[in-house]
Design a protein that fits this description.
- With 349 residues, this protein is of the alpha/beta class.
- It has two domains: 181 residues, D-Maltodextrin-Binding Protein, domain 2 (3-Layer(aba) Sandwich); 100 residues, D-Maltodextrin-Binding Protein, domain 2 (3-Layer(aba) Sandwich), CATH 3.40.190.
- Helix content is 40%, strand content 15%.
- It is built from 14 helices and eleven strands.
- A hairpin with a 2-residue loop joins strand 1 and strand 2.
- The longest helix has 20 residues.
- InterPro entries: NMT1/THI5, SsuA/THI5, TAT_signal, TAT_signal_bac_arc.
Length: 349
């Protein structure tokens, strides 16, 4: 697998959404990507007695994916009779590839799935496991600016990638904190490294993942402030990222889906119990990654993969529904979403 090191430095929320946004165009055009890569029934091929599975990432390899790398390295998939191949997302993103059956499984997000599920031709895929239990994203800024809450974003710039749902999220938390969203200046996101953008004052505030950008700031001794969205509106505690499966494949191969999730859960449980060993496995598989950043991120995520859930991967029905109801109320989807659409806990171990 060839990874561009530059893309690893710019592992940002904006990067994920940029890829996902491109994919929505393909979905609207009728799932044209990946249809020729697999048989029409989506059934896995067998080699050496193992069932072959393709798992498409949402972006370049990172600590959100560690459990899958651990499951491969430690033989958990083989124990379940599976041969799992990790594939990088195409230019138009992972979602269309999963929906088309070009990959059976892959990584996406509850918010991204909403756009596909609410379209006139809903994407035929389902979230079957939450990688991280809670939304660990929020706003990072320079410490010297004292932007410690959404209201304090007034009079400052925010690095936007110009998505309606993104700006509605910022407006929501600013107003929930008693602020005036019109006083937050939108500026185009012009760099691929959140910390570098703050250092150079390309912007004052930026939407980041605490598990990556904030840890990156720590190892760079960059003084920052950070606040998570979920402290200001519980409806924004959506699932990001999730593992999704092609619906046709899931219906035809329920035992394979369960086997895949059993092995994957063992990988993430290993990462929880021994984050440094898990970090070492990821870096060995992807040597382009910064070992120090991976170790820091892994230590943080060890407390997030399962968090307050009873088991890895579990979806809370009320939290899933609350976010889709928020999207409906804000009129951010093409058609009204069923608030329980797009996920299941039925295949978890």
């Amino acid at each position: 697998m060839s990874i561009n090191p530059a893309s690893l430095a710019g592992l940002s929320r904006r990067s994920f959404m940029k890829v996902a946004g491109a994919a929505s165009v393909i979905a609207a055009a009728g799932l044209s990507v990946g249809c020729a890569q697999q048989g029409g029934d989506g059934a896995p091929a067998n080699t050496d007695g193992l069932t072959e599975i393709s798992f498409v990432l949402d972006y370049t390899p990172n600590t959100n994916h560690t459990g899958v790398y651990v499951a491969i390295a430690n033989g958990y998939y083989e124990e379940e009779g599976l041969a799992v191949t990790i594939v990088m997302p195409p230019e138009d993103g992972a979602d269309a590839l999963i929906g088309s059956g070009g990959a059976q499984f892959g990584v996406t997000y509850q918010d991204t799935m909403a756009n596909y599920l609410a379209s006139e031709t809903p994407m035929p895929y389902t979230a079957v496991a939450a990688v991280v239990q809670h939304n660990t994203s929020g706003i990072m800024s320079r410490a010297e600016d004292n932007i410690t809450s959404p209201k304090k974003m007034e009079g400052h710039t925010y690095a936007t990638w110009n998505l309606d749902v993104e700006q509605a999220t910022i407006r929501d938390v600013v107003e929930a904190d008693g602020g005036d969203f019109s006083k937050v200046e939108m500026v185009p996101y012009a760099v691929d490294d959140d910390v570098a953008g703050l250092r150079t004052k390309a912007f004052d505030t930026v939407w980041v993942y605490e598990g990556w950008a904030v840890q990156n700031a720590k190892i760079q001794d960059f003084e920052y402030n950070y606040f998570p969205f979920i402290e200001f509106d519980s409806a924004l505690d959506f699932y990001t990222p999730v593992i999704a499966v092609n619906d046709e494949f899931m219906a035809a191969n329920p035992d394979v889906v369960k086997a895949f999730l059993r092995a994957t859960a063992k990988g993430y449980e290993f990462a929880v119990s021994d984050p440094q060993a898990a970090a070492d496995i990821l870096v060995e598989a992807v040597p382009e990654l910064d070992p120090e950043l991976v170790a820091e991120s892994q230590e943080y995520l060890a407390g997030q993969y399962i968090s307050d859930a009873e088991r890895w991967g579990e979806f809370d029905a009320d939290r899933w529904a609350a976010y889709y109801q928020w999207l409906n109320d804000e009129k951010l989807v093409a058609t009204e979403l069923a608030v329980d659409a797009g996920y299941t806990n039925d295949y978890l171990a």
